[in-house]
Design goal:
550 residues; mainly alpha; 2 domains; 24 helices; 0% strand; globular
Length: 550
Amino acid sequence: MCLFIYHFLITKYATSVVIFSSREYLAMVDKEELPKFATQVTVAIFVSRIFGYFRDVATAYAFGTNVLADAFYMAYRIPNLFRRIFGEGTLSAAYVPVLTEVLRKRGQSEAQKLFLDVFTIMSFILVGLTVIGIIFAQQLVPLIAYGYQFEKDYQKLNLTVNLTRIVFPYLLVICLSALQMATLQALEVFFLPNLAPVLLSLAEILYLFTIFHITKYKIEGLAVAVVVGGIGQLLLQFFILQRKGWKSTINFNIFRYGVHPGVKKIFLLMLPAVGSFSVEQVNTFVDALCASFLPTGSVTALYYSNRILQLPLALFGTATAIASLPVFSQHATENDYNKLKNELTLSLRISYLMIIPATVGLLFFSEDIIKVLFFRGAFDEHSVELTSKALFYYSVGLFGYTGAKITATAFYAMQDIKTPVKVAFLCLSLNIALNLILMELLGVGGLALASSISSICNFLMLLLLLRLRVKMNLGITNIIKSTAAFAVVSTILVLTVSKSLRFIGIENEYLFVALLCLLTAGGYFAVLYIFGNNEVLHYVNIVKAKFSKK
């Protein structure tokens, strides 16, 4: 729990750090509303992550990394391959700017027409995809879980097919829910929509604590719980929109009068971005396909280790990238590449202030962390070994994942989507080649290491191309110096504190990890503050400014 508290205390200010550094941007927005919205989103994500963690713990306790878990997480991946395109990924990125423009210029009535037309079209598309997915699951699953066909019996393959059919309707409800969430964000409603994923976790947790113990269809029941949780998210946002005076219904008038002009604009904007999101999904597809050839438990180990990795990445990488986009866009619009460069350098250094110690901790104590989080019930020593191995190698590339997200944002700000997509395709090819080589040497760890190496290459290539694009030094030397300082300080502290804790007889893993996190985090920021580290001083000044207002 101390890991979550530590992340929250720092991240509460993370999204506002980069935004507050630009006076030009502050002149364009409401100074009181911006930090309020940022805090609402951060709190909602924080709560959602906690419930997500308890859901994963309950699932790991019930199934460990056995055949049932592998089949479930493989089936769960399949509708999620489409989710980023038709849900919170490409569609939302294209939809929100157009809806906001219509809302501001033509009023709420016209914006509601646009929403209903998009909701109607997406409903038909998603129903079609869901029906196709259910009917052709027998043909679809072997394409993704190709290795399952070569096992001695077809238990895992057949189970994955059945689970895919059960869970595929989740695609329909979660994508429509994502459309509703995007609409609410355009209406400046942030907290409850971002809290909605808690319902998915609650549905699974309630199932695992109740019906799970009385049914013989245990893993099938978990798949049903996923769909129920998705329906809960859809209904929650339906009622929130209804309270705002917006209806989420099918508009059959589009067949008589045609669709709103904004619909065409949205789908045209989607096309360039589909490539970027498709690369990510193809990458996930390739990892799943390769994992299907590895021993039982590999698919589940990749899932749990990636979930842990996503915590620091989401809070410090993605949050910084989201906060940076409007700032980068402002400077790019003014062709002020010097300011854009300075903001990029600041964004990377601020995110690495958090990412580097997280990386060090995960590298040195991946097994301890997995034991504390999951080692109970059906999640045995073998499960710990598999998952900690994947987590170790995933952690190698954490700075690459983060850097690539933030640097790609600079290209998006310059309305250049093609360059990040081209680089992503090159790195996808590299990842496939490395998967085939490293999985033979390191098993599930090889797949994680391949992803890490590819992400680092992605980041470095984007940095090089951005430097050529803006034709100026990006301050890479300063980034390297800061990163090296973070790495040295955190490594020394992590090793010193861990050895000291063991020396004084702290053997309980829970107490050991809790004290290690708290003491290392406190010492880390204290040392950097004493030595006048710019990034820490930047945080301190923002926190002081916020409290001085109160």
